[in-house]
Amino acid sequence: MIKKIAFITLAILISSCSKDQSPKGALKSFIKLRFQSGTSRGELLDRSTGQLYSTIEDLNQDELDKFLDLKNFKLKNFKVLSRRCTEVKCVINYLISYSETKSQTTVVTEVKKSAILVREEDSWKLSDVTNIKTYHDSQTPLQVN
User: For 12-60, what is each residue's pLDDT tens digit?
Assistant: First the structure.
C-alpha cells in the first residue's frame, strides 16, 4: 500500500513539473502553438482570456484561416526582455523573430511585443498582445505594395 501511494505521488510530481506553468511558459506555449500547422480556434481559446479571447472568438472563418495561416513562416527565436508580475497579472515584454520561407530571399523579422497574462484558476492565460516595434532584415530590397 505504501509503495502504491509513493508511486502515485511521484507520478503526480513528475507530471506537474514537466509542464512550465509560469507566465513565461504560458506565453511561449501560445507562440509555439501559433506557428504550428493544424491549430484550431479552440486550442487558442483554451489559452486566452479577456480581449484576446473575444477577438479570436469573433473572427469569421475566413479571418480565422488567415490568422492561422503561418505555413510560410518559421519561428526562429523567443526571448523575454522584461516582466512585471503580481499574483494574478503579468506583463511581459518579449522579442520574437521568424523567417519567411515562401520567398526566394530569406527575410528575417524581429518583433518586440508586450503581452498581458492573467491567472485564471491554476493556469496563466494570454489576455492581450501589443506590437511595439518591428524590424525586417532582408538581403534584397523589400517590395512594398
Answer: 444 444 456 899 999 999 999 999 988 999 999 999 999 999 999 999 9
DSSP label at 137?
A: E
**Interatomic CA distance for residues 100 and 9, integer angstroms:** 46
Per-residue H/E/C for 88-133: CEEEEEEEEEEEECCCCCCEEEEEEEEEEEEEECCEEEEEEEEEEE
Phi, psi of 27 (to 5 degrees): -65, -45
Q: Taking the CA atoms of the chain, what radius of gyration do you get in angstroms?
A: 19
Q: Is the pTM of this model over 0.70?
A: yes
Q: Which residue has the cell 499574483?
A: 87
The angle subtended at Cα 15 by Cα 2 and Cα 21, nearest 5°, is 135
CA angle 94, 105, 95 (to 5 degrees): 0
Q: Does domain 21-138 have CATH number 3.90.190.20?
A: no
Domain segments of the chain as ranges: 21-138
Three-state DSSP state, 47: coil
